[in-house]
Amino acid sequence: MGRFSFAKSVIIETICDSYTLKKAVKISILVGTLLNIINQGDFILQMEFEKLNYFKLILTYFVPFLVSAYTAININMRLKVGHKLMAATTLTCKGCKKSLFVEKFASIPECENCKDSTSWTAN
């Protein structure tokens, strides 16, 4: 599996994960509501709904959702020893170039040769 395929699999797995999705929606509702109150609160509180910019209202919820999802994806893309992989892939040690296939949801091991200085890259 190439680096692009690994990234695509991690993105799909992360976005489809119910925990991640629920967290992103909760963050979106909380932050989006707060930002809408800051940006258009005077219209909302005075019930002048015709003055609301509905595009901005919707976008203000969408942006925190995307930021939250992006953060989760970025964390799941890390190839750090001890972390679990969101997608099966072949890892190559940056130090000794040894390759190792790791199954989906398996913990990333140390390289047998490099031990504490292990640094992996996805192939």
Question: Any chance you could write out the topology, listing elements then pairs?
Answer:
Blueprint: H1 3-16, H2 18-45, H3 54-77, E1 89-93, E2 99-102, E3 120-122
Antiparallel strand pairs: 1-2, 1-3
Helix pairs in contact: 1-3, 2-3
Explain the overall architecture.
This protein has two domains: 15-77; 89-122. The chain is 54% helix and 10% strand. The protein has three helices and three strands; from the N terminus they run αααβββ. The chain has helices at 3-16, 18-45, 54-77; strands at 89-93, 99-102, 120-122. The model has no long low-confidence stretch (mean pLDDT 94).
Short note summarizing the structure:
The protein has helices at 3-16, 18-45, 54-77, and strands spanning 89-93, 99-102, 120-122. With 123 residues, the protein is mainly alpha-helical. A 3-stranded antiparallel sheet has the order 2-1-3, with no helix packed on it.
Question: How many structural domains in the coordinates?
Answer: 2
Distance between the ends = 6 Å
- The low-pLDDT segments are none
Count of β-strands: 3
The sequence of SSEs as H and E is HHHEEE
- Profile the largest sheet: 3 strands, antiparallel
SSE-based structural type: mainly alpha
Strand content: 5-15%
| C-alpha Rg (nearest Å) | 21 Å
Coarse morphology: rod-shaped
Q: Helical content, roughly?
A: 40-55%
The overall pLDDT average reads 94
Side by side, the strands of the main sheet go 2-1-3
Total helical segments: 3
Key features of this structure:
123 residues; 2 domains; three-stranded antiparallel sheet; rod-shaped
